[in-house]
Every structure is written in structure tokens, then in C-alpha cells.
Give the backbone structure.
Amino acid sequence: MRYIVEARGLVKTYKRKDGTTVHAVRGVDLDIEKGEIFSLLGPNGAGKTTTISMISGLITPTHGDAKIGGYSITKAPIEAKSIIGIVPQEIALYPDLSARQNLEFFGKLYGMSGKALAHRVDEVLEFIDLKERQRDRIDTFSGGMKRRVNIGVGLLHKPQLVYMDEPTVGIDPQSRRRILDTVLRLRDEQRMTVLYTTHLMEEAQELSDRVGIIDHGKIIALGTQGELTQQVGEEDRLIFSIGEHVVSQDILKRLKSEVAGVTDVKYEKVDLIAIEEPKGEGDMVVVDKRGTGTLTAVRSGQTYEGVITVLAKRGRKALPHIINLLDGAGVEIQSVEVREPDLEAVFLKLTGRALRD
Amino acid sequence: MNKLLTIAQNDLRVAFKEKSIWINLVFLPTVLIIIVGLANGAGGSNIPRTTVDVYDHDQSSLSTQLLDSLRELNPNLILCPMDNDPDNRCKLTDKSLDIDTSQKRVEENIISAIIEIPHGFEEMLFRGEPTKLIYRSDEDITQQSVLFQTVQAATSRISGASVAGRVSAYALSQADIPNINTNETLASIFYQTANTLWQNPPARVNYRLAGSIEAGGGVSGFNQSVPGMGSMYVMFTVLAGATALILERKQWTLQRLVMMPIKRWQILGGKLTARFILGMIQYAVAFGVGTVLGVRFWNNIIGILALMIAFSLCMTVLAFLVATVVKTDAQAASITLLLALMIAPLGGAWWPLEIVPDFMKVAAFATPMGWAMHGYNQLMIYGGDLTDIVLPVLVLLVASAVMFGIAVIRFKYE
């Protein structure tokens, strides 16, 4: 059997109280190969969690079905669920119990007991590097440590397939790095298949063997990173950070019409989240660009950053012309980044929106 | 089943990790059992004794039997002056007792009534001639009092025995049997036999006086407060299950369980079993405290257990139902607190239902607490047996089944 997940025509619709119908997932077909890391990439509300909830048996599809290791999730749910290890986006643990007690409880529900359970719990604690803190209550743990126990529970019964639903949400960059390494180890050391959902393009790019891009409840692109970026051609992305400067539509139109190779121009304001206290007015502080994990330093008091994104063929050649034009228009450029075609560009190309939108 | 028990065990462990549980499970119920028990008259009978002035002008064996019957039928009765004690519970003065004095005592609410047994009472009764017992009281004649009913019951017993004696004597005299005694002697013999038989009549009304002290029972306010406060805290403890269930959904442990290879009924069964067990533990604590305070219930333990199980089950299912109605744990906590604080007094957990107005007595039976307390009172105050709690237990079980049906349809795991 080549595929461990075979989903066909998954549809989920909800009725709201006001009588309107919400189409959360609109017909998802998905095949995930054994031993690969497959990322489901899409913005918040795209249908990633609903899709994973149907595949894991939490919610029943309105239409369609998914086979896990050959077992239908709707017709043979117990057999199908035995193959899956779940790592929900939420910290689905008992905060009053210790890490070990949580692992033991869920281990028992996976049918383990006695010495075998104790041994497996030890192995998992070792794997998530929390052996030292195993007797401590979950509510005394940091966000990153809780995430690791959350992952540990999903690995207890040595599943063939692990679902990880945005496991890096709301944690610091260091913990995030640790979790991403853990995901790679699951594939490389434990030979597990990983279905990973994220709205962060960087994570999908780093981890995935294949990526499915989901938007408005439909998979709009599917393949390896190379296959996907080929869809947007040879365009580079030039990203200009311009502080709190506001750019007129006129300048954007001029960039597109006057600079050779430019195919698209976009201006957006990115919220900045300070991750350190400023020492004094006007000092530089480190900020996170709206939870993207991208850190930058700005003057304290700045709440957003203006970003001009330019799609251009042979971007490096177009760069001096763009800088000249912006300089001439009085726009103060603070930094420039040149990106080769990536999943963000694919998403932009396919939907006309950035992943963050 | 193993998985169900594992979930139940884990839920109990989580519940007992919360240190404040000991306050709700042991400390507060104990304190309230004592306070409410004392307020309801613990340490002595909570029901005031009924004092009656008696004028026995006949002084016959039959009149003595009548007075004994009164005492037997209503142990709360004090017949003055014959039952007076060194503490002067008849509240007699130096002035000798006569009808006028007694009349005044009725008006001043010192006594409840006056009973006069006329001269020749026995003789006339044996002769089959009508005789009248005089009962004086200022009570409302449209609402017969317990005392009046007691006097009627005792009189009926003696009248019945007398009639039976006379009928038998007449029948024998008509049978033309030689060497037979006179009718009066026969009537006396038959009366004695009938009266003896009356003490254990073939058909009887299950006549109980609210709050009366059952033979060998020893009722105190604790007989009210132990099941009352116990049941109220069972409500608090078990209904908190609604909040716990909502919290589990909020923290996603419930969804995680659903995504594991476990059947949904096992998950739900485990959650409900844990709450049910907590309810039974709560009852065990309350009745344990009751045992220390001298409440005797072991002779009715099967009935008490049946009521405990039925009520805990009903509350467990109610908690489940609440969890299907509310959206947040804060809402669940508010609703369960409101429910408990409304149902407990309405259902008679705080005070005996005998003292509340009639419409509240009816309203009590619209609550599970009302049925449970009715059952407990039957067993622990009125000296009832298993047959007296069949209906309360049945009502609680049917209510549980109906609520469970609704809750199962409405409940959402995700």
C-alpha cells in the first residue's frame, strides 16, 4: 500500500443559527504517501483543521470518506484511529496532572499497561526531552514544554501516521525550532508519516516532502515545493520595508509600468508585536511581524511596518531601478529582501492574497 | 469497559487533585448538617408535644383503655394531669383543675383540647347504649387536627370492639346453647377478645403523625439535615460535572479522547461514572457524619442506598444535560449553582416540607430533590419501609432516563 491516507470528496457544511450554510470544506481529495511529511498550508480559516478533524474521526464528513491504512474513518473508526497519533493545535492535556500521569492515562487508553506502558512512557519522555520534569504538573510548564508533551501523547502507541495541527502556534522561536526538529526526527528516525498543518510558509517549506495548499475549503495546489513554485514561473519577490511611510497608489502604478520585468506590486501594513520592553523613547526594539516568527528591530513606538512586495522577473536586475524610483518619490527604504519563488508566491499567484491576509 | 473505567478513574484523580474539593466534600456539608440539624430541632424532638386535659368521670377499665389507646396512637400526646412529670410539663398551677380552668388553658394555648369521658361510659357501652365522649377545642372544625383524628381513631377502636362483642353475644344467645352466661357477661368477654384483636387489626390505615417519634427511632433534626444537606452537596458536587465537561471540551482533552480508538459511549460513560461515584462519596460523607451524630438508618440501608443511587444518577444526568445547553464553563458554573440553590430548599433539603405552604409542597414534587427527600423522610422520620420509596426511586429513575435521552441527542463532543 503506497498511501496511508486516501481521502475522497471530503465535504463539511454547517448550518448557522441564522439559517445560513457555511461550507468549511468543499471537496478535498488527498493522498499521503507512507513515510513522508505532508503539509497542509493555508491561511487561518482555510479549512485545514476541519479537514484534519474529518480525517481523524472527530467530526463526520457531510460527504466523502477517508481511508487510513486501508480502514474507512467512517465505517471502521476504531481500526483507523489506532493507526493515527493526534497532536491537536490546543494543549489537550490535563493541567492538574503531571507530564507522566498524562502520558500514562492516554497510554492506557491506547491499550498499554504495566511495564510496557511504563517503558514506553520513559521512551517518549526521553524523545521529547522532558524526563527531568516528568513529575511536574503540566500547568507549571512553559508553552514550549506543554507543546512537547502534547506531541508526546500523540506518539505513545508508535502510530504509523501523526497528525500535527499547527503545533508551533503561540510559542517562542527557540521552542518552535525544537518542535520542527522533532517533526523531522519523526520521519527520519521513527519512520512515521506526518500530516502537518500550518499557515506559516517557512515551516511548510522547511519540513515538507509535499505540500497541499488549501484555501476556502479546497486544495488549490498540491505537489513538491519545486513542482509548486514552477507554477509561478521565474518571478522573484522583492520585499521593501519602509517603516510607517504610506505609499500612494500612483507610486505603485509607476513601479509596475516604468520598471522592466515587474509583474505585480503590492503594499501592505504589517502589525508589529514587541517582544521586549523598550529602554527609552526612540530606542530600537525587537518586534515580531504579526506572529510570523520573523524578527526585526524597529524604533520603539512603531506599531506597524509598511511593506512593498514587488514580483519581478530577474528581480536583482530590477532592484536598482525600483530603489531609484522609490527614493525619488521620497520613500525611505529601511531594508530590502530578495526572495526566489516560494510557496508564499504560489499562494499569492493562485489566490491574489498573501498567506497572512 | 476497561477504557470506561480508566476514564472514570482519571476524572476522579483530576477531581481530587483540586485541594478545595475537601472543603466541599467534607467540611461544608459537615458544618451545614450540624447547623441545619440543630435549627431543625436536633437534640430533642423537633415536634412540639400535644397537651390535652382529660376528665375521666368514669374511672373504669374501659376509660383507662381509651386513654392508653390515645397514647399508643400518638406518642406525642401528653394527657394531663395523669401524664404530668416533676418538670410540670402539663403546666398545672396550684389551682385545682376543672372544666373552666381547662377552657381558659385552651384559650391561652397551654393545651390543645379537653377530653371528657362521661360517667357510666363503660357500662353504657357494654349495654349497647349510646354514650358520648366530649372533645373541646378551639380548632377550625373544617380542618380536623391530628389530635382530633387520634381521638376519633381511639374511640372507633373501642366502639368497634364493643359492637363486635355485642353482636357475638347476641348470635350465641340465638343459638340456644345450654348453660350459657348472661348476655352482659358474654358481651364483656367478647369485647375483651375483640379489643385484643383490635391491637393488631386485619386492615388498618397506615396512620402516621408527621414528626412523631417512632418506637425505638429517636428522630432529631439530624434526620432531616443529614439527607437534606447530603443531597444538596451531592447536587453541588455532581452538577459541577457540567462545568468539568465544558472545560474538557475547551481544553480539547474531550476531542483528543474522541480522536483516539475509543467508542464514544465509553468516553461519556467514563465521565458520567466518575461524577456518579463522586455523588455517592458525598452521600457516604454525609451519612457518615450522621452516624457520628446518632442518626440511625442502618435498618433501612437498602432503601437509603436505593435513594442515594437514584438521586446521584439523576443529578449526574442533569449535569450532562446542563453541559448540552450552556456554551462556557462560567455559564455552566452559574447555572448549576442556581439550580442547586433553587432545588435544594424547594425540595425540602433545608427544612421539613411539613412546615411549608401547600403550594410549595406541590412544587417540591416538581424537583428531583422533592422526591428524594420524600423518600428519605419516609424511611428516616416516618418509619416507612421499602414499599414507601418505590415511587420516589421510580420517579427519579424515569426522570434520569428522559433527561439522558435528551442530553445524548444534544451533546456535542467537538
Summary: The longest strand of chain A covers residues 3-15. Residues 94 and 102 of chain A are 7 Å apart (CA to CA). Chain A has a mean pLDDT of 87.
